[in-house]
Amino acid sequence: MAEERIRNGSAEPGLKPRLGVSTCLLGENVRYDGTEKSDPILLGAFGDAVEWVPICPEVECGMTVPRDPMHLADDPDSPRLVTTATGEDQTGRMQTWMRSRLDELAGCDPWGFVLKSRSPSCGRSAVPVLDSTGAPAGEAAGLFAAAVAVRFPLLPVADESSLRDDSMWDNFIERLFCLKRYRDSMQPEGSRESLVAFHAAHELQLMAHDRDVLHEMEELVARSRKLPLDELSARYEELLTTAMEFVATPAQSADAFLHALGLLERYMNPGERQDALELIEEHRGGRVPLTVPTKLLGRYIQKYRVEHLATQSCFASHPNELKLRNRS
Ligand code: SF4
Fold this sequence. Notes:
Oligomer: single chain
Strand order of the largest sheet: 2-1-5-8
Shape: elongated
Helix content: 40-55%
Bound molecules: iron/sulfur cluster
Largest sheet: 4 strands, parallel
Number of strands: 8
Structural class: alpha/beta
């Protein structure tokens, strides 16, 4: 049943993010007024590199198309879903459906979600909540989006409007692949060794995101033998998610590249070192994208066979991750 709802891209082999998505974003006419909300640029950027798991909470819980428009009402900390014209409460119906659908979604092993912004069901934040007079009472997440956040607290969740921003897009894709790599590295039977190896391979990537959280992760890894594996793994995953949520700035990425250069420069001739240094600083200044110093350093890492750097995640991305991140 769950598998039937997965919409595959092309038959291209490889690691594909499986993403829950608001059905209207895929161009299906499921909105209250019988329209859709597809974004050709966004859909084009994802292309056939993902597997979609379409979800329309309102239609799937039994509402018709078209239907009365709805809004969130009353307490922003615990909003109700009501029809705007008649005030009919749809909260219970939605909650009953969500319980089984979230179980089904968990069985699909999603990597993350792309949800429709501003919807009282799918909006992940800042959806207006109105009081009984129709006046603004605050903001909240839509009912389904809030339930997704509780059920899948560590998975990346974005809305289509935030993904128009290049840095948010890049961060979202990076987080999808990073968390998946971690979970895969701990399957079928994780070990301290595999966690330590994962950490070593992600040092530079984490450095570009959040050095403080990286420091906490290093402390955790250092005392890994003193903790039960399940506790260690859960805490590590939590810290990994926290670190990756910080969007890496060009300056932070440049610092991580300088760290890599420090390990490479003993093999390089002065001209190579100078070229790399200049490109890193160009990236820091926002004049060249991340891919430029990544590719140049990657070439030197291959040329001089620097094993420790060759296995760093930022120089060894999966082709599908590179394809998605380089949307522009
Ligand atoms: S925003 Fe969500 S509930 Fe509304 S039409 Fe789109 S998928 Fe359905």
